[in-house]
Amino acid sequence: xxxxxxxxxxxxxxxxxxxxxxxxxxxxxxxxxxxxxxxxxxxxxxxxxxxxxxxxxxxxxxxxxxxxxxxxxxxxxxxxxxxxxxxxxxxxxxxxxxxxxxxxxxxxxxxxxxxxxxxxxxxxxxxxxxxxxxxxxxxxxxxxxxxxxxxxxxxxxxxxxxxxxxxxxxxxxxxxxxxxxxxxxxxxxxxxxxxxxxxx
Length: 200
Hints:
The chain has 7 helices and 6 strands. It starts with a strand and ends with a helix. Helix 3 runs parallel beside helix 4. Helices cover 42% and strands 20% of the residues. It has a single domain (4-199), classed as 3-Layer(aba) Sandwich (Rossmann fold), CATH 3.40.50.410. A hairpin with a 3-residue loop joins strand 2 (50-55) and strand 3 (59-65). Strands 3-2-1-4-5-6 form a 6-stranded mixed β-sheet, with helices on both faces.
């Protein structure tokens, strides 16, 4: 687990502002606490800093981020816009393969943790992007994607579960996706969440 890089991809689309979480807080605020816990654990495992993306209709990338800076990222961003997940996913995976081709990968692989509340508006592109990435992989532990769902959007749940369970049926070379809800995550140790992303 320590010999991996970690990337957080945070959904800041408009629906993250919905106040349907316990205590009447928004999904964005609710996601912050869990995201900070994940970031702290990833920072322990990956002390050179993690990569963080925020995405809605567009995405922004932050490199070599500490867990303290994750809090600032939440403060600097407000939920708005659509849920275009494929572009940040593609950027993160392309970056991994570029470093791999250049011989700059010193670790066993990379884990992407996607924290989202809704079904992406670019579902087909998301599937195609993940399937294409698996075709570039040499072994199944190289890349892992864990989808962590905030809120209880049924469409999002079904889509993320399909990524978890049916990816190889649509041409993926390896099963690299795992999906879990924020509620489920509260009941298992973070290390288990991170391990399931790799060994699902």
